[in-house]
Amino acid sequence: MSNPQQLRYSKEHEWLSAADEDGVSTIGITEFAANALGDVVYVQLPDVGSAVTAGETCGELESTKSVSDLYSPVSGEITEINEDVVNDPALVNSAPFEGGWLFKVRVTGEPEELLSADAYTAFAEN
Q: 104, exposed or middle or buried, with CB in 10 Å at 0-12, 13-18, 19+?
């Protein structure tokens, strides 16, 4: 499992990019989570313009094995959802760190406690 060093990770297995110049970060699930879920067949994402709260559920991922809640690692306003993933949920499995990103959020406040790539890898392997 290779987790990109530039991202930060939650213990709920979401990743977060550094905010851009507008304060917007991209969020997805990790390769570990995608593998644990199995083949993702449906994605329910928060609506653009809605507010999310760090550590709270904001959507669902349905796979051939189960339904899992999606958590936001930060508080803020949803600025964009990945329509490609809505139309082709398998992107979550095939490219969790690239084309399989889930949504973008304009971050307000401080994120919940996030892990570095190395700390997340150690956490996920235990």
A: buried
